[in-house]
Design a protein that fits this description.
The chain is of the alpha/beta class and 335 residues long. 35% of the residues lie in helices and 15% in strands. Bound molecules: iron/sulfur cluster. Residues 33, 35-36, 44-45, 48, 52-53, 94-95, 127 line the site of iron/sulfur cluster.
């Protein structure tokens, strides 16, 4: 970590790892999740809107390959001069390993023609209780060609908090999914939300410790946001829900960062939602300004990522993936 930085942020790590700027292209595969179809629950997590925390791009009629094509064109414009940029194909919405593995195979098949120079990494978001062995094998197979990240929502390390927000999985299921993903050679990125009802400041600290203990390579953390068309929107309007103000969030996020392992890569330290969807809180600051403010809080405390880390464990990085230039023909890889 650059000693001037107070936490290990994603962009420099990507540049160092891939040798070029790499940007995420979010894809909406129109998947669903067991919290919505009744397998585990109905109605979804109380903070999740009808688009499953995703882009909603599928509703516009664009298939995954089309979304990816459009995203690649968009990020190509970010290259300076003749500098080329790479992409992370990010299957973001809902739980992408849930259900029939043939569907996941089809989704990965849509991304496959772009692997290599254009798509340098594939990232798949899912729930910890949706990682069937067959899905894991497909991702493991893909990881022989490009790095594969499995993004797992933990949100809180407190099972009671998870139950209250209708998340309906447990910390033990998260630990199990992370362990199995690591055994399969995948890299894991965990998600945490600070300020969930009943979680509190200690919850922020405990969740960071759980993520550090699990050895996830990456971490995304953000504050609780109340969005329209969610159960939390009802609670908010009924005065039954509070959200963090910016100063409190920064303090709790600093606590969180201090308890991570120093090697974990912090992908995100704040959340973003389209203004037309967001009810509260309204921080009124761009994500870059929030990162700067968080760095200031850590500077003022004289601390940094890992200052309060406890434990011996490390971070699980996947074995070196094959160079994208050495990719074997698709038919050999997709068996
Ligand atoms: S598990 Fe994910 S997609 Fe499903 S309801 Fe919760 S946040 Fe939404």
């Amino acid at each position: 970590m650059n000693p001037d930085l107070r936490f290990r942020s994603l962009a420099p790590w990507l540049k160092e790892t891939f040798g070029q700027p790499v940007y995420r292209v979010a894809l909406d595969a129109g998947s669903t999740c067991p919290n919505r179809d009744g397998t585990r629950g109905f109605g979804g997590c109380t903070y999740c809107d009808v688009e499953g925390s995703g882009t909603g791009a599928l509703r516009t009629g664009k298939a995954v390959a089309e979304q990816l094509e459009a995203g690649l064109k968009r990020i190509a414009r970010r290259g300076r001069g003749d500098q080329e940029v790479g992409a992370i194909a990010y299957l973001q919405s809902y739980s992408n390993t849930y259900g029939d593995s043939a569907r996941l195979k089809e989704l990965l098949g849509a991304v496959e023609p772009y692997l290599g120079d254009a798509v340098r990494c594939v990232s798949v978001a899912t729930r910890p209780d949706c990682l069937q062995d067959e899905a894991l094998r497909l991702l493991e197979h893909l990881s022989h060609r490009v790095p594969v990240w499995l993004e797992l929502g933990l949100e809180s390390a407190n099972d009671e908090v998870l139950l209250n927000i209708n998340r309906l999985h447990t910390l033990a299921e998260f630990d199990d999914a992370v362990q199995r993903a690591h055994q399969a050679g995948l890299s894991t990125v965990s998600h945490a939300i600070l300020g969930l009802p009943g979680d509190g400041r200690q919850g922020a600290r405990d969740t960071a410790r759980a993520i550090a203990r699990a050895g996830c390579a990456g971490v995304k953390v953000h504050h609780l946001m109340v969005l329209k068309k969610t159960q939390m929107a009802h609670d908010w309007h009924a005065g039954r829900l509070e959200v963090l103000d910016l100063e409190t969030y920064l303090d709790w996020a600093a606590d969180f960062i201090e308890r991570l392992h120093p090697d974990q890569v912090v992908h995100r330290v704040t959340g973003e939602a389209p203004q037309e969807k967001l009810i509260a809180p309204q921080f009124g600051l761009h994500k870059t300004a929030i990162r700067v403010r968080l760095t200031e809080v850590l500077c003022n405390r004289g601390t940094r990522q890992g200052s309060a880390h406890i434990g011996e464990g490390g971070v699980s990085l996947p074995p070196q993936s094959a160079s994208p230039l050495d990719i074997a023909p698709a038919s050999d890889q997709q068996r």
